[in-house]
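Let us practice reading a record.
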Amino acid sequence: MSKPRILVQLDTDKHASVFDAVVAVDSGVHQLFQYSQVTVEDAEGLVHGAMFTRGPADLHQTAVFVGGADVAAGEALVEAVTNCFFGPMRVSVMMDSNGSNTTAAAAVLAAARHTDLKGASALVLAGTGPVGLRAGRLLAGQGAIVKLGSRTLERAQQAAERIEACVSGADVQGVVTSNEEETLLAARDVDVIIAAGAAGIQLISEAAWTSCENLKVIIDLNAVPPVGVEGVGVTDKAVDAHGKITYGAIGVGGTKMKIHKAAIARLFESNDQVLDAEEIYAIGKSLEDDS
């Protein structure tokens, strides 16, 4: 008789995410153990508890999910978790703090449905944020020429350097998009725009993006009014507007949910996986290929 699937949810916030818990249950998890305000110092005891209670043959039935609003804290926690492993004593781990990996993967996959990303030019607005940085990283990994927009050039350049350091052959440039004129200048020649800003902040006007002659796809990941891309509806899903293909946050959200559930299920196929941005994107791509 096979062991039940156990997911250990390590959340860096005051309360462990209910959203992530519901998705876990809907993904076939039998038992969910939730821990909140988890720090790197807590990781060893929690992970050892998951590792040492089952033999190596059953460890694929236990997995760890790292979440919370703070992506940097999530990244540090994943590193602390994986540092606990040795030999066959390990469990699979997924990181999706602030929904950054699943949302970025869904956005890039949406763009890829309508244009070949290899050699394409892409602008990520709010490109230094948790979702924007990962979207830029995934676009670069697909061979796109990427501009990361930010209110300050220093932050944009630092983010671009981070991506170029971890993606072989990446072509990433930091650009300033602190006002309408700068945003239009950055967007003028691109094929794809992904707006990944915080809730309730408009990043580009309808007049600006509709004037971009080369633009093929524009994706907004903010559903809270005012939306990030003026003129794009939150439920838009491959809508033709002004000769461009538009996606709103809810239009992308269906793909994000499918990826999230599939990634949770994938954790229990073996005990040696670490699912970060690229791995989660690959899972999303496999779902696209199968559909």
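A brief commentary: Residues 6-99+257-290 form a domain with the Rossmann fold fold (CATH 3.40.50.10280).
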